[in-house]
Amino acid sequence: MNINEIAKLAGVSRATVSRYFNDGYVSAEKKEAIRQVIEQTGYEPSMQARNLRTNVTRLIGVIIPRIQSEAVNRMVAGISEILSADGYQLLLANTQNKPKEELKYLRLFRKNQVDGIIFMGTIFSKEHIKLMKELDVPIVIIAQEFDNYSCVYQDDYHAAYDAARMLAKTGSHFGYIGVTEKDKAVGQSRKKGTLDALKENGIKIAKKDICETQFRVDGGYEKTQYLLEQSPNIDTIICATDGIAAGALRYLHEKNISVPDQVQLLGFGDTELGSVVTPAITSVHFHYKTTGMESAKLLLEILQSGNDMQKKIKMGYQIIEKGSTRK
C-alpha cells in the first residue's frame, strides 16, 4: 500500500493525500474519505510519504466576469494588495460573463495546481458546483452569497430597498432596468429590494415597466427608450448599475427630457462614469476594494489554518445623492 493507492481508494489526488499527511489544506469531506481508507487498510505512512509535501506555487487563481468593469477592477485591486503583501501572485481569468469560460478556467486552475481560487461568479450552474467540489484547493466566492463556501458579498437587497424608499418620496411612476435574474445579486436581490420598497410605500410598478438588459451602457439607452415609449408618464428610473444608468441618461439628454425635473435616475456602484456625466448620477456606493481585500484575507486564513471553514461576510453600503435625483 502506498500514497498513490490511498489516493485512488479515497477518490482524491495524490497531492491531497500528501497535504493530509503534512497538515495542509484538505476539505472536510476529502479529509474524512482519506481517514476512512487509512483506518480500513491499516496504512501507516512512511517518513518519505510524510515529507512528500506538495509543491506550493504561491499562485492564486482569480476568476472575474468582466475586466472592463470598474467594480471588478476595484475588487481585484483589493485582492492584489493583500495577496502581494503575503508573497502571492495572481492568475487573472477574464470570462466576459460566459459560464463556459468560467468552467474552462476552473479546470485550468485545477491542472496548474494554484494554491487557492477567488471566484467572482455571477451564475452558478450544476456543472459549476460539480467541478468546484472536485477541486483540491480552497475557493472563496466574491460578490455573491453562496451556500457551502466562504464568501464576501454586498447587501444588495437592503441597498436597493433603501434607495427605492428614498426615491418614493419624490417619484410616483417608476421604471426599473435590471439584468438577468440568473444573477442572484445584481439580477434578483436589487430587483426584489426595489419592488418591496415601492410596494410598502403604496407604489405599484407595472410589469411592462420592468425590463432586463446586459451590463452595458447601450443597454440602458435602449431600455429607457422602450420604457418611455410605452409609459411616457414615468418620472423615476432605477437602474441595476451605473453603466446602465449612464445609457439611460444619454437617451434622456437626446430627447431633451430634463433630469431630474422630469425623470430622476439612480444607479448602483458609485462609479467614476456615474460621476463625470452631467448631472452626476445618484448611486449606491459599495466598498468594492475592501470587498476584495476581505476575500483575500479570508482565503489566506483558510490556507494558513487548513480549516475548511464556511465563513460569510456581508459588506455595508451608502446611498450617495448627486444631481440626477430630486430633493
Characteristics of this structure?
434 Repressor (Amino-terminal Domain), 46% helix, 3 domains, Rossmann fold, six-stranded mixed beta sheet, 12 strands, 327 residues, six-stranded parallel beta sheet, alpha/beta, 17% strand, elongated
Q: What is the number of helices?
A: 13
What is the assigned CATH homologous superfamily of the largest domain? Response regulator
Order of helices and strands: HHHHEHEHEHEEHEHEHEHEHEHEE
Oligomer: single chain
CATH hierarchy class name of the largest domain:
Alpha Beta
And the CATH topology of the largest domain?
A: Rossmann fold
Secondary-structure-derived class: alpha/beta
What proportion of the residues form beta strands (DSSP E)?
A: 15-25%
- Strands side by side in the biggest sheet: 2-1-3-4-5-11
Low-confidence runs (pLDDT<50, min 5 residues)?
none
Helices and strands in order, then pairings?
Elements: H1 3-10, H2 14-21, H3 28-41, H4 47-50, E1 59-64, H5 70-85, E2 89-94, H6 99-112, E3 116-119, H7 126-134, E4 139-142, E5 150-154, H8 156-167, E6 174-178, H9 184-200, E7 210-212, H10 217-230, E8 236-239, H11 242-254, E9 264-268, H12 272-276, E10 282-286, H13 288-305, E11 312-315, E12 317-320
Parallel strand pairs: 1-2, 1-3, 3-4, 4-5, 5-11, 6-7, 6-8, 8-9, 9-10
Antiparallel strand pairs: 10-12
